[in-house]
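FAQ: What does a ligand-bound record look like?

Like this one, built around zinc ion:
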Amino acid sequence: MSGDHVRNTGAMWASPRCGAGTRSGTACRAPAVHGKARCRMHGGAWRSGAPRGNQNARTHGAFAQDGIAERRAIRALLDETSKLLIELKPDCGPEESVG
Ligand SMILES: [Zn+2]
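The answer part, i.e. the structure of the complex:
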């Protein structure tokens, strides 16, 4: 550079970086597109990627949020039912072993 001009690139380098893997095995480190985790070349470009709520890649849904919430609700209901049954008939608790 010419003269005594000081380049202030700190704010530029503080921006979020793309973490996509490159062919050399390192992270991309190009600036990520605003509001996205990837740069313009790795899926951050405007209108790239699947639309929100896309189900095309869903295989079984075992780890989907709605599936987890459903199982949690069923588990809570079963626990509540078990407690109610123990309250109604205390001698038939789960800790009692029947041989
Ligand atoms: Zn990138």
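Follow-up question: can I read anything off the structure? Yes, for example: The two ends are 88 Å apart (CA to CA).
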